[in-house]
Design brief:
The complex is a heterodimer of chains A (291) and B (337).
Chain A: H1 6-16, H2 20-42, H3 80-116, H4 119-133, H5 136-147, H6 151-177, H7 181-188, H8 193-201, H9 206-229, H10 241-248, H11 256-284
Chain B: H1 2-29, H2 34-38, H3 46-56, H4 62-74, H5 88-123, H6 128-141, H7 145-159, H8 183-190, H9 195-230, H10 233-240, H11 245-282, H12 288-297, H13 301-329, H14 331-336
Helix pairs in contact in B: 1-13, 5-6, 5-9, 5-11, 6-9, 7-9, 7-11, 8-9, 9-11, 10-11, 11-12, 11-13, 12-13
The chains are: A mainly alpha (291), B mainly alpha (337).
Chain lengths: 291, 337
């Protein structure tokens, strides 16, 4: 199934590259992706290798810093740069899994709710209202408290919290598309419900879903980092950026670098994704365009 | 208007039932039976166990149990904390003022900076102030606030020594009994010299941290609301009849843009409560956010359950007020549907 024609991609790209911010974001994300794929090659050290001779070593450009610890070391002598590079893997993986889960389940529920508009619609939408009534991070925290702390449970929790946005968005789009001429035409020629839902309606709802998925990707990374920071997400010694910050907290008055770099990595990654998301929105959906 | 209010309240009933059901199921989803969970980690004698099962009505069908739970909630009984053996309601409302004070100052900062920033960006659209302001807004929106808090502590508390690292008041030099629970107000009521300053000193960094994301959202939304309004005919008319720019923007445009902005401000309550969890943890601020985190780490499930329920009800209530205000400001919404 082809969701977009070739020149739809080209048009989107032509709009996208008008946004300087979007290009910067894409560039930085490219860099992060290189870290994700080639972490084993680029990282100077194993992320869990402890060097007892080099505890809390500052970055190389300060007086006390020395080669090869470019960004310094943490409290047990692990290389900061290597941990940050491997940490990119966790953040991107979390974002990818969480958003995929939320998009797949959310789109499916939204399609069903919007297409059939029966008691199922009512149940699904009321359920989503309930999820939306809780502040997202708090609900995720509560769920993790039930499921037990850990990266996988944190990802489930965040995906669940994000679900309503995709359900609502898909449903609203299905409602506006399903009585269009092209849908009625395919129904008349005998297309099945299944075919109408997935081949006729869904491709025409994709643009806002792609934008929402991009923006959710950054939220997933932020929330996972927050859970990691609170000790409810990834557990040490995993080099997840949020968990690294949790470990770094007690060295706040002695070693600025162990606090500064993991957060900077989160900020830049999230900012890049949001820049790309904004640019994508402008390119994909003329109605949502930020004037 | 009465019909409008009533319809809004009726719409909330299914959500309220859903929230209570979710909270009810929360403790049942945990591995192990509720009595083991409610009795904490030390466990209890078999007699006490049987007594608790009868007392909690666990020998009855689940649906009856849910309605008992609902009845208790409506009567204000939200269960007892495992770690303190005090009613969850008391524990929660004891800490709520601290969170509300923090949230109030955060939203104040967010509005005082966010709204003007959005207006300037809209008026200077496409020029450097727009780029700088919206770039900062997007950065703020992308900020992991727990890290932002740590950075600010590192700069202003440990390096410069301007602000305290944690707490709500300099308790070595000042002491007074809580009256309202709002430290700034209590300090002022106590009449002790310097107490208010000390309270504000403690408040500044946490509120700045908590205000970051709402400020970014408010700035972005104000900008787009203003841009929409600035394109309207009546703005052109206002300019055409020779009104000064400040009047057109400050009065004609802003008043109409405010409808959107007020809604956005109201919708930030959920964000504030989630942010409060992180902010209060970093600054050891004794509010409901930190209480929730402590409850989770002590496996104090009745407290977590009650806390989640209270907070979502609070958010629901604020959203209702925003909806009603929106209908009040904008008659089209009230009569349109």
């Amino acid at each position: 199934m082809k969701l977009f024609a070739d020149d739809a991609w080209r048009t989107t790209w032509n709009y996208f590259k008008e946004s300087k911010g979007g290009l910067w974001g894409l560039g930085f994300l490219g860099l992060v992706m290189i870290c994700v794929i080639f972490a084993d090659v680029i990282a100077p050290f194993d992320p869990s290798l402890q060097n007892r001779e080099a505890l809390l070593l500052p970055p190389i450009w300060t007086e006390a810093g020395h080669w090869p610890y470019i960004l310094g070391t943490d409290a047990v002598g692990r290389d900061m740069l290597s941990r940050l590079i491997y940490g990119a893997r966790y953040s991107m993986f979390i974002g990818f899994v969480v958003v995929s889960l939320a998009v797949i389940v959310g789109t499916l529920l939204g399609l069903i709710a919007g297409y059939y508009q029966s008691w199922l619609d009512t149940i699904i939408m009321r359920l989503m209202d309930v999820i939306l009534a809780f502040p997202s991070l708090l609900l995720a925290l509560g769920l993790v408290a039930v499921l037990g702390p850990g990266l996988v449970n944190a990802m489930y929790a965040i995906a669940l919290v994000m679900l309503p946005h995709f359900v609502r968005l898909t449903r609203a789009n299905v409602l506006s598309e399903k009585n269009r001429d092209y849908v009625i035409a395919s129904r008349i020629v005998g297309a099945s419900n299944w075919r109408l839902m997935f081949n006729s309606i869904l491709p025409n709802c994709m643009a806002p879903l792609i934008v929402q998925a991009t923006l959710s990707f950054s939220n997933a990374i932020l929330d996972a980092a927050a859970l990691g920071f609170l000790g409810m997400g990834a557990q040490p010694p995993i080099p997840e950026w949020g968990a690294m910050l949790a470990e770094a907290r007690e060295f706040i008055s002695r070693a600025w670098w162990v606090v500064t770099f993991p957060g900077l990595a989160i900020l830049l990654t999230v900012l890049s994704i949001n820049l790309v998301g904004d640019a994508l929105r402008d390119a994909l959906d003329p109605r949502m365009r930020r004037s | 208007m009465f019909k409008f209010i009533l319809s809004k309240i009726i719409l909330l009933i299914p959500t309220f039932l859903g929230i209570t059901l979710a909270a009810f199921l929360f403790v049942r989803l945990l591995p192990g039976d509720p009595v083991t969970i409610l009795s904490g980690e030390r466990g209890i004698s078999p007699e006490r166990r049987a007594e608790m099962i009868a007392q909690l009505g666990l020998d009855k069908p689940v649906i009856v149990q849910y309605f008992t739970y609902l009845k208790n909630i409506l009567q204000g009984d939200f269960g007892q904390s495992i770690s303190t053996h005090r009613p969850v309601v008391e524990e929660f409302f004891e800490r709520l003022p601290a969170t509300m004070e923090l949230a109030f100052f955060a939203i104040l900062i967010a509005v005082l900076i966010g709204v003007p920033a959005g207006i300037i960006a809209a008026v200077k659209r496409g020029r450097w102030p727009d780029h700088v302001l919206m770039g900062s807004a997007l950065t703020g929106y992308s900020m992991p606030i727990f890290w932002w808090g740590l950075l600010l502590i590192m700069l202003f508390s440990t390096t410069l020594g301007w602000t305290p690292v944690s707490g709500r008041l300099d308790i070595i030099n000042y002491y007074f009994d809580p009256v309202t629970g709002f430290m700034t107000v209590d300090a002022w009521l106590s009449g002790q010299e310097g107490a208010v300053t000390s309270a504000l000193h403690h408040l500044i960094l946490p509120s700045v941290v908590l205000s970051t994301i709402p400020m970014a959202v408010i700035a972005r939304q104000t900008r787009s609301a203003m841009l929409e309004v600035l394109g309207e005919d009546y703005i052109r008319t206002a300019y055409a009849k020779g009104l000064p720019t400040w009047r057109v923007i400050g009065i004609h445009a802003l008043r109409n843009a405010m409808i959107t902005v007020v809604t956005v401000i109201g919708l930030q309550v959920g964000t504030l409560m989630a942010g409060a969890v992180l902010t209060e943890t970093i600054f050891s601020w004794p509010g409901v956010g930190k209480w929730m985190i402590d409850a989770i780490s002590h496996r104090d499930y009745p407290a977590v359950q009650g806390g989640l329920l209270f907070i979502s009800m609070l958010v629901m209530l604020v959203n209702l007020i925003v909806d009603l205000m929106y209908g009040w400001i904008n008659p089209r919404v009230r009569d349109g549907k």
